[in-house]
Design goal:
- By secondary structure, this protein is α+β, with helices and mostly antiparallel strands.
- The chain has 13 helices and 12 strands.
- It is 42% helix and 19% strand.
- It has a 7-stranded mixed sheet with strand order 9-10-1-11-3-6-12.
- A hairpin with a 6-residue loop joins strand 4 and strand 5.
- Helix 10 crosses helix 12.
Length: 306
Amino acid sequence: MDVLSELLDGVRARGALFRRTVMDGSWSLRFAAGSPLTLATMVRGRAWIVPATGEPVAVETGDIAVLRGRAPYTVADDPATPPHAVIGSAEYCVGGSGPGEAGEGPDGSALLLSGAYTGRGEISERLLRALPEVLVLPGADCHRTLRDLVVEAVAADGPGQQVMCDRLLDLLLLSTLRTWFDRSEAHAPLWYRALDDPVVDHALRLLHDDPARPWTVAGLAAATGVSRAALARRFTAQVGEPPMTYLATWRIALASDLLRGTDATVGSIAGKVGYANAFALSVAFKRHRGTTPTEHRATAPERVQG
């Protein structure tokens, strides 16, 4: 499995929150649901996304925007328009189930659709760190069929709607990110660009497929069919860090996701990611993250309930 597939394989919406909002005239909405990742598209009209930091970003009809982080952001007809409503998690849901819906009528000039991931462990932290605070994929480059299916599913009402919307949101995110990373302006992370080097790609696949194996540079070089020096040189040039440094970071990232996404013990997680015991993992985790595994788990954001 390649690195991107490994990261995207962990994307699983569970009870994602959806909202359709119809606007007319001058409008501005402040979104404060605290979701780790949100997808939004303008079904009609155009808008500006004003993130917590950085410059406003324009979104045209059909574009797909991906917003990373739990900080509030604003969507408006103009960056200068002050918010006239705050949208929290409760405003996404109607009666505790189904998509939230609000606005001035079905024929408004602007129709915004958003879907927000809510729970911990649904999105890999390493994937989140690879994304900008806001990215916008032009409508011409989007998977239009998927986008239209999401729009239709959110507007419908029937048995299994939540599960259908969750799975479609996952597919739309995967399609959007894969296309985004291939764009030059995306400034894709080094580990993604490294896939063009067959030796480094092979080495990355081995590390991701079996992170618990007691890898050494010599063992990894033998498995990829090159010398230790050649592997170390090519890997560092392509990925930005030596193989064993990358492996240590990857193991901690896996442990982080497991700590927040499962109820497994620290000791069992240690074994899964290549550490002899809970103490060894705790020492490495503290060195990389500045906190212990137990503290990391205790500070995980709770699942947002609609």
